[in-house]
Specification:
The complex is a heterotrimer of chains A (269), B (257) and C (232). Chain A has two domains: 22-101 and 218-266, D-Maltodextrin-Binding Protein, domain 2; 103-215, Periplasmic binding protein-like II (D-Maltodextrin-Binding Protein, domain 2), CATH 3.40.190. Chain A is 40% helix and 24% strand. Chain A has helices spanning 3-14, 31-35, 38-50, 61-69, 81-89, 122-132, 144-155, 175-184, 193-198, 234-245, 247-255, and strands spanning 24-29, 53-58, 75-78, 93-109, 136-138, 168-170, 188-192, 205-209, 216-224, 257-258, 261-262, 265-266. In chain A, the strands form two sheets. In chain A, strands 1, 2, 3, 4, 5, 6, 7, 8, 9 and 12 form a ten-stranded mixed β-sheet that branches. In chain A, strands 10-11 form a two-stranded antiparallel sheet. In chain A, helix 10 packs across helix 11 (247-255). In chain C, helix 1 packs across helix 10, helix 2 packs across helix 7 (150-166) and helix 7 (150-166) packs antiparallel against helix 10. The longest helix of chain C is centred in the middle third of the chain and has 37 residues, at 97-133. The termini of chain C are far apart. The chains are: A alpha/beta (269), B alpha/beta (257), C mainly alpha (232). The interface between A and C is medium-sized, with 37 and 33 residues.
Chain lengths: 269, 257, 232
């Protein structure tokens, strides 16, 4: 192959990549909204209405917040209230808006070896898990779900991280990978309901604990601050946020179903 | 064949040996020692324009080493080696072409090998195509031009190596046992090729063990024995009345190392 | 596994537009990265093989070690470079196929350099004296060796392609696995695995293997025609 042919080949390969996308924004997001299929439902509606393409980077709340702190993203959709407030307070975000809620659940083997099924309180259930020593898989990745789990352990007056490697195992992975691990080990784990309902590899695992107000899972949406990060596409990002919070956007969220089940409940005020 | 060459070949490869010729080449008391072993010792000789010099001697006598020194691939560790044109630079080496005993041909076609040589020797692009055809004809390899060089017979490979060396239009052509292990027919073709090279004005130095070949081709003979020159004489007197016992023994097939 | 194989056949048979989009992006990104890595790596490998200069030994050790560069680390380095907060932030390349090509080029180049250096060094042993006797320049020697080693170097390029097509960490980090924009085979497999859709994930894996097989087969066929038709 001569050099000339090689260069032509490279040009042919690169050319289609150089196409300029007209209008788009980048959303740094938690994974549950992507994995459940919510974006696949919502975004085409928004794009049809606005002509703005939405590119979602779904990486987990902790990573999404870190990426956004580098200015890599225009809009943030995450679920870790304290971290979101800190993000705005540090000047990286313009303002945090309530977007929607769903809830967390604790899933485990159908046989329920720790006898959790009669407890409707998360703290009590976690205590029993610690006492009986059944395996619990933690995300361990600084994600929204991980932060929530640690808060629940604190509320139960326990610090399981000292038992790391014994019954308490940190996967250091995303929700889906962690669910796969928990199912493979016949273990328990905390997951948001949306990820669980849309998860395809449930095997013989079921929801064992749900319905505690402490398990509420509020999602927020934030415009990355263009004054701090000049590259941010603030105009189009704001249009997206305005649409999400509008009656039309909120209705679209409420209308999303997986297996006939509503997974996200609008909460904009 | 030789006549055709003279009429068609001269223009492209004119044997014009101007004042910049490397010839004559002179070795004056040259020695070569490596790792404490002396391979050449006190060698003095002259290579003259237009005279075919055969270097003879038993295996290990230092014949190939002499060629490498003349070509500038190696440098003497003692004495002086001088070319009429001055010290040999890497590019100046093109004036002195060498063909090794085992030809190193590129992994390309016959024509590809010659094109590579023409390009490397800085022949202008416009002249290359004509010279390619001429060199192929000279070697008698035109029909095999597209054949992979490495699947040619030994004789064909040797001929290709020689015309590749001629692509540089050198003053001096150094041939290291070009007919070793060749049958009489292939040998004769190589000898014809050597005569044709001379017709172009190329001066040839030939390392050979073939006494008959040396008789047929050589004007001068240099006889090396264990790193020393024992005779340097016109060919006729060397073969008819060798001056040293070693040369006499070698010619009689009795020289043992 | 039966499900997975059925899924693989279904994906191919249906000729799913989404699948085709992902496959073609994967090929474009990885083939471009390998081509760029060859443009950079082959001359460098040849130079390391034949030139003698101070620091050469250290450079050889460095490139050999870099063959083991973890994709995630390469991804992280390219992310830090391309992030809006990074030195090349204004180019707005993060989360684009170009970013993925850069990351994979970083991953593949050391392989091309290290393997081609070895191939060329072996050939150089054989060619060196002949080329020097012809008074060739260093550039001329590099080009001669690269051309004559072309068949072995094709295998080197395939090793590079294997690494590029198989890695997920780097493209995930700098591409973001954005649907229709930067989603490739490996990131899709990771995504479907995280959704628990294991049959689809394995099915996609089989499709990826099939693509690797096709690319290898095509190049070997090319090599075959070169080797047989032109040189025997």
């Amino acid at each position: 192959m001569t050099l000339r042919v090689l260069v032509l080949l490279i040009l042919a390969l690169v050319a289609p990549l150089a196409q300029a996308a007209d209008r788009f924004i980048v959303v740094q997001s938690t994974t549950s909204t992507e994995n459940s299929g919510l974006y696949g439902w919502l975004l085409p509606q928004f794009t049809a209405e606005s002509g703005i393409e939405v590119r979602v980077v779904a990486v987990g709340t902790g990573q999404a917040l870190r990426n956004a702190r580098n200015g890599d993203g225009d809009v943030l959709i995450v679920h870790a209230r304290a971290a979101e407030d800190a993000f705005v307070a540090d000047g990286h975000g313009v303002k945090r808006h309530d977007l929607m809620v769903n809830d967390f659940v604790i899933v485990g083997p159908r046989t329920d070896p720790a006898d959790l099924n009669d407890s409707s309180k998360a703290a009590a259930a976690l205590k029993r898990i610690a006492e009986t020593g059944v395996i619990f898989v933690s995300r361990g990745d600084d994600s929204g779900t991980h932060k929530k789990e640690l808060a629940l352990w604190r509320a139960a007056g326990l610090d399981p991280t000292g038992d790391g490697g014994a019954w308490y195992r940190e996967s250091g992975s995303g929700m889906g990978a962690t669910l796969n691990i928990a199912i493979g080990m016949d273990a328990h784990t905390l997951t948001d309901r949306a990820s669980w309902v849309s998860f395809g590899n449930k095997d013989d695992h079921v929801i064992l604990v749900e319905g505690d107000p402490a398990l509420q899972n509020p999602y927020g949406v934030i415009l990355v601050n263009p004054e701090m990060h000049p590259g941010v596409r603030a105009g189009d990002g704001q249009i997206f946020i305005d649409w999400l919070l509008s009656p039309a956007g909120q209705a679209a969220i409420a209308a999303f179903r997986v297996n006939g089940q509503q997974l996200f409940f609008p909460s904009a005020r | 064949m030789s006549d055709a060459l003279v009429t068609t070949g001269r223009r492209a490869l004119a044997p014009a040996r101007g004042p910049d010729s490397v010839l004559p080449v002179a070795m004056d008391r040259v020695g070569y020692t490596i790792d404490g072993v002396t391979l050449l010792d006190d060698v003095s000789l002259r290579i003259r324009q237009g005279r075919l010099t055969a270097i003879m001697g038993a295996n290990g006598a230092g014949k190939t080493l002499c060629l490498r020194l003349i070509q500038g691939l190696l440098h003497p560790t003692a004495g002086t080696l001088s070319h009429a044109s001055g010290p040999v630079t890497p590019t100046g080496r093109r004036r002195i072409a060498i063909v090794f005993q085992r030809p190193m041909l590129l992994r390309r076609s016959v024509a590809g090998n010659l094109r590579h040589a023409l390009k490397t020797y800085g022949v202008p692009r416009a002249e290359r195509a004509a010279m390619l055809v001429e060199l192929l004809d000279l070697a008698g390899l035109r029909a095999l031009a597209q054949r992979s060089a490495r699947v040619l017979s030994s004789g064909e490979q040797q001929r290709l190596s020689i015309v590749r060396a001629l692509a540089a239009d050198p003053d001096l052509l150094l041939l290291d046992e070009p007919t070793a292990n060749l049958d009489p027919y292939a040998t004769r073709m190589i000898e014809t090729l050597i005569r044709q090279a001379e017709a172009r004005g190329v001066t040839v130095v030939l390392v050979t063990h073939d006494v008959g070949q040396a008789r047929r081709l050589a004007d001068d003979v240099i006889f090396l024995n264990r790193g020393r020159v024992t005779e340097q004489t016109p060919a006729g007197s060397f073969f008819d009345e060798p001056q040293t016992a070693e040369a006499a023994a070698y010619l009689a097939g009795r020289l043992l190392l | 596994m039966g499900d997975a194989i059925a899924e693989a056949f279904r994906l191919i048979a249906v000729g799913d537009a989404a699948l085709w989009e992902i496959v073609s992006l994967s090929l474009r990104v990885s083939l471009t990265a390998v081509a760029l890595a060859c443009l950079i790596g082959l001359p460098l490998g040849a130079l390391l093989a034949i030139a003698r200069f101070p620091g050469r030994g250290a450079l050889i050790v460095a490139t050999n070690s870099l063959m083991g560069l973890p994709p995630v680390l390469a991804g992280l380095l390219v992310y830090l470079l391309l992030s809006r907060a990074g030195p090349l932030g204004p180019l707005e390349l993060l989360y684009t196929p170009t970013a993925m090509i850069i990351a994979q080029t970083v991953l593949v180049t050391p392989i091309i350099v290290a393997l081609s250096r070895q191939v060329i060094a072996d050939m150089h042993q054989e060619y060196d004296e002949q080329l020097r006797s012809m008074g060739i320049t260093t550039t001329g020697a590099v080009l001669t060796l690269l051309y004559d080693a072309r068949l072995s170097l094709l295998t080197v390029a395939l090793a590079g392609f294997g690494r590029a097509a198989a890695e997920v960490g780097a493209v995930m980090m700098v591409g973001g696995n954005i649907n229709h924009v930067t989603r490739v085979m490996t990131t899709t497999i990771a995504l479907e695995t995280s959704k628990g859709n294991l049959a689809i994930a394995v099915g996609l894996g089989l499709v990826l293997m099939l693509i690797a097989l096709t690319v290898n087969g095509a190049l070997m066929a090319l090599r075959g025609t070169q080797g047989v038709a032109r040189h025997v």
